[in-house]
From TrEMBL:
Annotated InterPro entries: DNA-bd_dom_put_sf, MerR-type_HTH_dom, MerR_fam
Naturally occurring in which organism (per UniProt): Actinacidiphila alni
Record's keyword annotation contains Translocase: no
HTH merR-type domain segment(s): 1-68
Database matches in Pfam families: MerR_1 (PF13411)
Protein name stated in the entry: DNA-binding transcriptional regulator, MerR family
Matching Gene3D superfamilies: 1.10.1660.10
Chain segments annotated as coiled-coil in the UniProt record: 81-118
GO molecular function: DNA binding; DNA-binding transcription factor activity
Source organism superkingdom: Bacteria
Amino acid sequence: MRIGELAARAGVSVRSVRYYEEQGLLSSVRSGSGQRHYTDEEVERVAFIQRLYSAGLSSRTIAELLPCVDSPSEEHSEAALERMAQERDRLSAHIDDLVRTRDTLDKLMDTAREYRDRHFRAPVPQD
């Protein structure tokens, strides 16, 4: 199949397919006229790559994980597990940073509300 059909079947843009190929995540066979041709298996591969991107992995990390998919072995599995553990640790640290940032923002919002209420709101008359 040609690049447009692969993109349509996988639910991605043609630009994404070209990018995946540039990054070494996907390969094609070129026709005599230079057109890219893909097999049906590439549809699932593109979907898999998309899932990895959605999980927050970079193209470099994905390239490091693909040997486990392409040629499973104990060595590749160990390397993939180690790389995924590193990514999980990176994501956990990022989540921790986001929680700290959210908590700081909550405190700043409380302070701003208190200041606003103290300085700009008229006191409610008491009966």
